[in-house]
């Protein structure tokens, strides 16, 4: 299955995955980070995935080693196999509501107390768990998984093979208000929608606002962690990954293959080049034009500049004292 090379007992039986420091009979574990190498010599696991160039310094405890080119990717393949054994939703619950003018493909499941409104379209093989709301004219592609509590407002579009975790909200109103002469604010109607392209995964409690006009786009292969905030008319580029609690203000355009750390923030109406990396808790306040840039700090600076600046910043009290001493001598 993995194209690996076996060392040790080829007859050992494997029934479940397990952590290298815990393991147990029938467990398959892995060693990808050498910080955990010590456990390779004590783990009670039955078998262990390792890289082809792993050179143990002691006797390995596992009965079998499987040497592979890429440990993490091999683990992913195996975990998908284990995951496929988990029971999925099946059929349309008699405690759900599916509007007569909704269109469901083949092998669609709808869990208890879920609502599928008029004009909604659900692709083949999609699993809708309990307490999900899909509004009018929502389109959901093939082989999606929508976990309990997800809310998708009217007219939003979800592509094939998407995963939406619990309590995700897609298509809530963008934060648009017009100041009045008396100091109050009047709501600006948000008339657009949200478009998720194929292979997108959205973490629990993440919110994605509908566009004021047009669409908020989450492009193919984007992965969002829990508690991410995406404002109206944002465009997140293909295969960009975003860690928890990051936020994007309105009309920000993020390039392809970007990596964005937790609690990072982006002001509105800027563009960020492909391949940009943003360290956790950084604040991006202006456009990033050069692809592959790494940023750190708030406001964010080039990564190396920030580290050098911070090294000086920590010494400011000492430097200030020395400057005063030099001034007195002068």
Task: Briefly say what this structure is.
This protein is 13% helix and 28% strand.
Report on this model:
- The chain is α/β, with parallel strands linked by helices and 330 residues long.
- It has 2 domains: 5-83, 3-Layer(aba) Sandwich (Udp-n-acetylmuramoylalanyl-d-glutamate--2,6- Diaminopimelate Ligase, Chain: A, domain 1), CATH 3.40.1390.10; 97-306, 3 Solenoid (UDP N-Acetylglucosamine Acyltransferase, domain 1), CATH 2.160.10.10.
- The protein is 13% helix and 28% strand.
- It contains 4 helices and 37 strands.
- The strands form 5 sheets. It has an 11-stranded mixed beta sheet with strand order 8-11-14-17-22-25-28-31-34-36-37, with helices on one face. It has a 10-stranded parallel beta sheet with strand order 6-9-12-15-18-23-26-29-32-35, with no helix packed on it.
- The mean pLDDT is 94.
Average pLDDT rating: 94
CATH topology of the largest domain: UDP N-Acetylglucosamine Acyltransferase, domain 1
Distance N to C terminus: 76 Å
CATH architecture of the largest domain: 3 Solenoid
Give the percentage of residues in beta strands. 25-35%
What's the CATH class of the largest domain, please? Mainly Beta
The biggest beta sheet reads:
11 strands, mixed
| Estimated helix fraction | 10-25%
The strand line-up of the biggest sheet is 8-11-14-17-22-25-28-31-34-36-37
Number of separate strands: 37
CA radius of gyration: 25 Å
Given helix and strand content, the structural type is alpha/beta
Tally of domains: 2
Oligomer: single chain
Looking at CATH, the homologous superfamily of the largest domain is: Hexapeptide repeat proteins
Question: How would you sum up the global shape?
Answer: flat
Low-confidence stretches: none
Total of helices: 4
